[in-house]
Design goal:
The chain has helices spanning 42-50, 85-89, 97-106, 122-134, 152-169, 180-183, 203-206, 210-218, and strands spanning 2-13, 16-27, 31-35, 57-62, 68-71, 140-144, 172-176, 189-193, 197-201, 224-228, 246-250. By secondary structure, the protein is an alpha/beta fold. The model is unreliable at 209-251 (pLDDT under 50).
Length: 251
């Protein structure tokens, strides 16, 4: 069953079209990773799925009463504010100790309840944000570059936890990432976005080009990346690119 269906989604800001004609379905239990260069509309796509943005054209259909959990790219908390992890999970709506403990365990952060938020490492902080997103027992878990700033082992461990969460609660996962070297193994489908869907398919197809594998194998943060799409898989979208054309992506 489709949890979310985008049909010809178009989003325009101040006369600039950010997304054009995007059609995409998110099915129950699948992990979908969205990749693309800066300014390609990845965050706009997520905000449209959540319902925070109204489409300029096309439609977004969600299954009735869809429960969505969201893990942001960043969340700033005043480091001088005395705030434990347990108290953070009850803002703004109080949750029971039992539910908070369950969510922390699911996120791989079961020993952090009494810790101060300001004293957490980057990886621990993201797991607490994941726990917060899991409080509602989501049918769809959305992550917007949730591992930005983590080192490669930290990112890999976080995505392994996401796969474990999917197995345990059966939720679908929609995530934006530039780290294909760690998300490939966990993704059922990869969607390449550049204002429109230029390519989508199984990870092994998207990763088929040697240049692509070489790029995401090194993953130097901030480097200008050249990667190649080998359009040897079927999809319903017109890429608008020649086969094997290189695209530049700044991480």
């Amino acid at each position: 069953m489709s949890l979310v269906s985008l049909n010809g989604l178009t989003v325009t800001y101040g006369g600039n079209t950010v997304l054009s004609g995007v059609s995409l379905k998110i099915q129950e239990g699948e992990i979908v990773t969205v990749v693309g260069p800066n300014g390609s509309g990845k965050s706009t796509l997520l905000r449209s799925v959540i319902g925070a943005l109204k489409p300029s054209g096309g439609s977004v259909t969600r299954t009735p009463h869809l429960r969505i959990g969201y893990v942001p790219q960043k969340l700033h908390i005043d480091p001088t504010l005395p705030l434990t992890v347990r108290r953070f999970l009850s803002l703004p709506v109080r949750v029971s100790d039992t539910r908070a403990s369950e969510a922390l365990e699911q996120a791989g952060a079961g020993n952090l309840a009494a810790r101060q938020m300001s004293g957490l490492s980057g990886g621990q902080f993201q797991r607490v944000l994941l726990a917060r997103a899991l409080l509602s027992n989501p049918q769809l878990l959305i992550l917007d570059e949730a591992t930005q700033g983590l080192d490669q082992p930290g990112s890999a461990a976080f995505y392994q936890q996401i796969e474990k969460v999917r197995q345990e609660i059966g939720c679908a996962v929609l995530m934006v990432s530039h780290e294909l070297h760690v998300v490939m193994a966990a993704s059922d489908r990869v969607v390449c976005l550049n204002g429109h869907i230029c390519c989508e398919g199984a990870p092994e197809h998207v990763a088929s080009a040697p240049e692509y594998r070489a790029l995401f194998g090194t993953g130097t943060q901030g480097a200008l990346a050249l990667y190649r799409h080998e359009h040897n898989h079927s999809h319903d979208h017109d890429c608008g690119h020649d086969h094997g054309r290189q695209h530049e992506a700044a991480e």
